[in-house]
Design goal:
Chain lengths: 508, 569
């Protein structure tokens, strides 16, 4: 009998049917090619069109993702492409967040003077962004080590390019180079770990039961070593310690919209991958490894929290301050991941969703400071709150939310995260979780101290030089749109949690 | 008058919106609007005070009156049950006097703010925001709502000190914020622990299909739910976790096996978790009160804040700390109250003595008064810790009375500062010569504060000391020496006030030449009379007729003391 032929036909039909779940990536890739093609034309009319072409591509992919989200019950959990990828609630929701981040990035880029003036290859810029989005989508969908590695590399390469996109700016090249060096190192270490996983597990598919059964035969020190190596790459992507060193430099050198994007979308993707891994470990190896895992992930969380929050205290530039704040936020999410329960996933998704709005809001404010008012240092902000009260008040809203104080969604997010840690502590009785909870809460006090320095300079310090007042109408409207969900979700969190509950229900 | 409590909170909040719509130049209109709003709030709180029925407390819904209860946030946490946050307001004997105080001092503060010149619009918007959130704190019966208002007080206060304050305002503002924020984070930890452990029996009944709606849950059904909870027959996804403070009072509402359950013997680093939770909550509110080791933010904040903000800080914000002890810390963890009575009483005595000693050493009149606040808040602490009926009533009375008197005292420093730009005691002599009427009011305020019979401070401190003396035999909480040492605090109080009075007001008129070349200290203006005279009258009224207030508040406080004594044993 022709069994090989039959299996080939099966694989082919599987691949063919898999395309149905790949529409967002297909659309994004198509628009990427379109952008590259259009960029060849020199006419200004075409050049001006380019961002809007990219925007159209992302909107099209959002429409597919929203549709998927609405029909999530019928799509359910589906492996496709011979088990390389998975389409489940987590992947679809993460994809939606990436697309939203992409749209915000384009909006910020359109408002960015620096990108307009110093930079000619606009087509490339938007094309890279679409590739980056494609990579992120694939990352969230991967359940195969090799596929995961390819997706992460796609994201990384696009990220390196975006960092150094303004070639005339000196620190852009420097930060791009640093990013590449750290990034390749982390990728290498991760690949090394993955090779062990493949060798010991006998499969590349990490949702495979057999894979974990094989791994469970390993003695736990070896498994932990392998696990640490593999996680190096993931922790690099979420900017968690000790793989956070690239963050301040990249945040300082890259264009603001790109930084805002880096502080949200790749972080979300990284956490999705970590969640997928940890769920598998919990399902298959929990009995052996639970306490070790809490110690490892919790330890990373604790270091990240301490480094992020305390280093931020000494920063004098808004960008570097936000870079460390972004490290600190990764720490909070990791703390919730330390004892992963079903409920933690929804809390984390909630937190990451809120983070999206807060970070784009605060980075738009940073962009306004740098572009329109020409200040990068916190000192330079002195007295600007009195000249631009609306901007100042919105800055307070975003910073309060980043700190995690009511009445903002940041508070609800932190409340849900901390509740989870508490409940997991109650369930496991592992007092390290309580240490995490306490230090997380107390570090919120530290966080407040550095966040409040921005309003402190804005409102308390006198402005010595009388600068001319610039119009900020467009920026203010966008800022208000970003601030609205931050406040609204605090008063009506069920609006968001209901969606997330559905998503988690259909996640693997 | 169904929504009187909401209107108490929302009148100032809506006025903030109105002020934001007014153009910057209309300063007069902004001030008038704020005054009208606070007067309206005062009238409503007075109406509330006189219509509050103290004897009905046992029969109405869990002892609270004018209750407003709406579902606000309801989250389904699947296997962990439901999370319920309510818009839950109500008054009882514990919050009543504080609501009245907020209504009164809100108006006094606006009158005192009349001379503010810098950025009037923003000032009054923040001021009203502050008053609204203080009011919210006293009315909220849902811990989440309480916490929302509690945190929301910080931001307006931060800006009010930091923009309109004195030379070291930035330092004082950030210090105030960091201290209070650390306190509120400690409260947040326990808040998370509490809501994961406590269920709302009525809402759980609805969720489990035993009742059609929450108001239809009869006591029988509630009992049924509570016993099902104890026997473990309720599925965990049917449980409705709640932030409702009254639900937290009842041990029956705690989920068996949850960390904060009354009978849980879970230990953490050698201590029972419930006692640790009590300590965290206590520290959180003690920072706000403040008590001695964590009081250092208070003198700075007071000295740098503008006069009206000092008035609000002393008369209202400190009371939120004390109120938190009454409303949350003691009744939710009664065994902690009994276990740590010595410690709390000791800290109270320390605050009384140390605060008074510091006041004695101060040369800045405003700092002197700030430290006297620390000293007086010590009485609140020992009165409550004594867990006697007299002590707890006196403690509450002290909060109310100190609210009135400290308001007066800070206005007095404002009067001197406005005329001369200095508050140093040694810069002035013989002020009585040019300011006779002012001196009369100063004497009243000083004597009221040091506890002269006939003023409200006397009643409060007398009750507290009686309770503390009786405690050793009645409740067995505090040893007698604490009462004796605390009494000596009264002597110190007399010393620093009389000494300051003698130095500043008696003798021949003289002002330090660096302050004023020739002494120019005119007597009170009409606006200043308007603030000081009503407060002086009120301290006298409440000093001569304590039953005015005690009749309203003591049934609830007696009940609270009994409850803590029974549950804490």
């Amino acid at each position: 009998m022709n069994i090989p032929a039959q299996s080939l036909i099966n694989s082919l039909t599987d691949i063919q049917s898999g395309f149905a779940y790949l529409w967002p990536e297909i659309i994004l890739t198509f628009f990427f090619l379109l952008l590259v093609g259009l960029d060849l034309f020199k006419a200004t009319a075409v050049k001006i069109m380019l961002p809007f072409v990219a925007l159209a591509g992302i909107v099209a992919s959002i429409m597919v993702q929203v549709n998927d989200l609405n029909n999530i019950a019928s799509i359910s959990i589906k492996h496709f492409f011979v088990g390389l990828l998975i389409s489940d609630g987590l992947a679809i929701y993460a994809g939606l967040l990436f697309s939203v981040a992409g749209i915000f990035t384009i909006v910020l880029s359109l408002l960015n003077q620096n990108l307009k003036v110093k930079f000619s290859g606009r087509g490339e810029y938007y094309a890279y962004l679409l590739v980056l989005l494609t990579g992120l989508n694939l990352m969230a969908k991967s359940v195969n080590l090799l596929m995961l590695f390819v997706a992460i590399e796609l994201v990384s390469i696009a990220s390196y390019l975006l960092t150094a996109v303004i070639k005339k700016q000196r620190n852009a090249m420097e930060s791009g180079l640093k990013y590449i060096l750290y990034g390749t190192l982390a990728s290498g270490v991760m690949l090394y770990g993955m090779s062990f996983l493949y060798g010991f597990g006998g499969s590349l598919n990490f949702t495979d039961t057999l894979f974990w059964q094989n791994l469970s035969r390993l003695s736990s020190p070896i498994f932990i070593a392998v696990f640490l190596l593999t996680f190096a790459g993931f922790l690099f992507k979420v900017a968690a310690a000790p793989f956070h060193f690239w963050t301040p430099d990249v945040y300082e050198g890259a264009p603001v919209p790109v930084v805002a994007f880096f502080s949200t979308a790749p972080k979300i993707a990284g956490f999705v991958v970590i969640i997928r891994f940890l769920i598998q470990i919990r399902n298959h190896l929990a009995t052996i490894l639970q306490d070790d895992l809490i110690l490892l992930i919790g330890g990373a969380a604790l270091i990240t929290l301490v480094i992020g929050n305390f280093t931020a205290l000494w920063q004098r530039k808004a960008r570097r301050l936000l870079a460390y704040s972004s490290v600190a936020h990764a720490g909070f999410v990791l703390a919730a991941l330390a004892a992963l329960a079903d409920n933690s996933i929804s809390a984390i998704l909630f937190y990451l969703t809120v983070l999206l709005f807060m970070n784009f809001g605060i980075f738009l404010i940073v962009q306004i400071f740098e572009d329109k008012l020409e200040v990068a240092d916190l000192n330079g902000l002195s007295g600007l709150g009195k000249t631009y009260p609306f901007l100042g008040i919105l800055a307070i809203i975003f910073l309060i939310s980043l700190t995690g104080l009511p009445p903002t969604a940041g508070f609800t997010g932190k409340l849900l995260l901390f509740t989870n840690i508490w409940q997991n502590y109650a369930a496991t009785g592992n007092s390290f979780l309580l240490v995490l909870l306490l230090s997380g809460l107390l570090l919120t006090g530290v966080a407040f101290f550095y966040y409040i320095r921005i309003p402190y300079f804005l409102f308390f310090k006198r402005n010595l030089s009388e600068g001319k007042k610039v119009m900020l109408l467009k920026e203010n409207i966008i800022l208000a749109l970003l601030a609205f969900p931050v406040l609204f979700i605090f008063f009506q969190p069920s609006w968001l949690t209901n969606v997330i509950e559905q998503v988690v229900l259909y996640s693997k | 008058m169904d929504y009187i409590l909401s209107s108490l909170i929302f009148i100032p909040l809506l006025t903030v919106l109105l002020i934001l719509l007014l153009p910057k130049q209309m300063e007069g209109a902004i001030k008038s609007v704020s005054l009208v709003a606070t007067i309206l709030q005062m009238v409503l709180s007075c109406w509330l005070f006189f219509n509050f029925n103290p004897t009905a407390s046992a029969t109405t819904d869990q002892g609270y009156q004018f209750v407003e209860k709406l579902n606000w946030i309801s989250l389904n946490l699947q296997s962990l049950g439901h999370l319920q946050i309510q818009y839950f307001l109500g008054v009882d004997g514990i919050s009543l006097s504080m609501v009245l105080l907020t209504g009164l001092m809100g108006v006094i503060g606006v009158v005192s703010s009349w001379t503010i010149k810098k950025n009037v619009k923003a000032y009054f918007a923040l001021y009203l925001l502050l008053v609204a959130s203080v009011m919210g704190c006293f009315l909220a019966l849902d811990l989440f709502l309480f916490y929302l208002f509690f945190e929301f007080m910080l931001l307006p206060m931060y800006f009010l000190i930091g923009i309109w304050g004195g030379p070291r305002r930035e330092y004082a503002a950030i210090k105030f914020f960091i201290y209070t924020l650390i306190g509120s984070l400690l409260i947040l930890i326990v808040m998370i622990g509490l809501y994961t452990s406590v269920i709302d029996p009525a809402a759980t009944a609805v969720n489990a299909g035993l009742a059609t709606n929450a108001s239809g849950a009869t006591p029988a059904i509630v009992n049924q739910v509570q016993s099902a909870l104890v026997s473990g027959t309720l599925a965990s996804d049917k449980l409705v976790h709640t932030f409702s403070i009254p639900d937290m009072y009842q041990a029956k509402n705690f989920i068996p096996g949850s960390i904060l359950h009354a009978f849980s013997n879970i230990q953490l680093w050698g201590y029972p978790v419930r006692l640790l939770a009590f300590l965290l909550l206590f520290i959180g509110f003690a920072i706000k009160l403040p008590v001695v080791p964590v009081h250092t933010w208070l003198p700075d904040a007071h000295v740098e804040a503008p006069t009206p903000i000092s008035v609000l800080l002393a008369s209202l914000l400190l009371k939120v700390g004390g109120y938190g002890l009454f409303r949350i810390v003691f009744p939710v963890f009664p065994e902690g109250a009994a276990y740590y009575a010595h410690l709390i009483g000791g800290i109270g005595v320390l605050s009384i003595i140390y605060g008074a000693m510091c006041a004695l050493a101060m040369s800045d009149l405003k700092k002197l008064i700030a430290y006297s606040s620390v000293s007086h808040m010590g009485f609140v602490l020992i009165g409550l810790a004594s867990l006697t009926v007299e002590g707890a009533n006196g403690s509450m009375y002290q909060m109310f009375s100190h609210g009135l008197i400290s308001g007066m005292l800070f206005i007095i420093t404002g009067v001197i500062y406005d005329r001369s730009g200095s508050r140093m005691i040694q810069h002035f002599r013989g002020l009585a010569f040019t300011m006779p009427a002012f001196t009369v009011l100063v004497v009243i305020a000083f004597f009221a504060s040091l506890g002269l019979p006939g003023f409200s401070g006397f009643i409060a401190e007398l009750l507290v000391l009686l309770g503390t003396f009786a405690s050793a035999t009645v409740s067995g909480m505090l040893p007698r020496w604490m009462a004796i040492v605390a009494t000596s605090g009264l002597l110190l109080g007399a010393a620093y006030y009389l000494w300051a009075l003698q130095r500043m007001f008696f003798g021949k008129i003289w002002v330090h030449p660096e302050v004023q070349e020739t002494p120019n200290m005119p007597d009170l203006t009409r606006r200043e009379y308007l603030m000081l005279v009503p407060l002086a009258v009120l301290t006298l009224v409440f000093g001569l007729f304590p039953s005015l207030l005690l009749d309203k508040i003591s049934p609830a406080i007696n009940q609270l003391v009994q409850f803590i004594l029974v549950a804490g044993k």
